Amino acid sequence: MKRIILIRHAQAEDPLISQKDFDRPLTIKGVSDAMHQATKTPMDGYVHLYHSAAQRTSETARAFANHFQKIQLHSRKDLYNADLNQLLEILEELWEQEQIILVAHNPGITQLYFHLTGEWDAFETCTCAELIFSDSSQIQNLKAAAKTVYFAHPKY
User: Fold this and answer.
1) Domain limits of the chain?
2) Do residues 47 and 72 touch, judged by C-beta distance below 8 A?
3) Which of 8, 65, 101, 139 is the most exposed place for a label (fewest CB within 10 A)?
4) Phi, psi (deg, nearest 5) at residue 146
C-alpha cells in the first residue's frame, strides 16, 4: 500500500527589506513546531523526504530528518511554491516509491491534500498529514483516492 506524508513548512520569519522570499528562515516558534511535529508524525518505514529548496522548507525537513536518522533528504527547486499541477507532476515522477514525504508550501500543499483526499482542511504552518492509497491506486486517477490516517496541526 502506498503511503504519502504531506508537510507544510513551519512558521518562517517575515522577509527583511532586502531579503528574497526563498531565503526566509524559520522563527523560533517554527523550529519548535517542526521538532515537536517530528516526534508525533508516524514516519516508520519512510526513507525519502523531498523538500523545496527554500530555506524554511529545508530547515523543516532537517528537523524531521534529525528525529528519524534513516530519512534521506532530497532538495528540489521545483517544489518551491509549486501549485497543484506541479505537485501532481512531482508525485507522478516519484509514484514507484511506496512511501513518499513532501515538504512544501501553501497554497499548493493544501490543494494537493484536498485533491488526493476530497477533504478540505487548511494546512497551517507545520501541519502534517499521512495518506494511504489502496494497492490499485493509479497515478492517472488520484482524485479523492487517498484516505487520511494521520492529521495534525502543531500545538499552539
Assistant:
1) 3-12+24-152
2) yes
3) 139
4) -105, 155
Residue 102 has pLDDT above 80, yes or no: yes
What type of residue is 130?
A: E
**4 - beta bridge partners?**
100, 131
Q: Are 121 and 111 in contact (CB under 8 A)?
A: no
Provide the pLDDT for residue 127: 98
The dihedral built from the CA positions of residue 7, 145, 122 and 39, taken in this order, carries a sign that is negative
What whole-number distance in Å separates Cα of residue 149 and Cα of residue 156? 22
Its CATH architecture, for the domain 3-12+24-152, is: 3-Layer(aba) Sandwich (3.40)
Are 100 and 4 spatial neighbours (Cβ–Cβ below 8 Å)? Answer: yes
Contacts with 101 (C-beta within 8 Å, 6 or more apart), sequence order: 4, 5, 7, 43, 46, 48, 49, 50, 64, 71
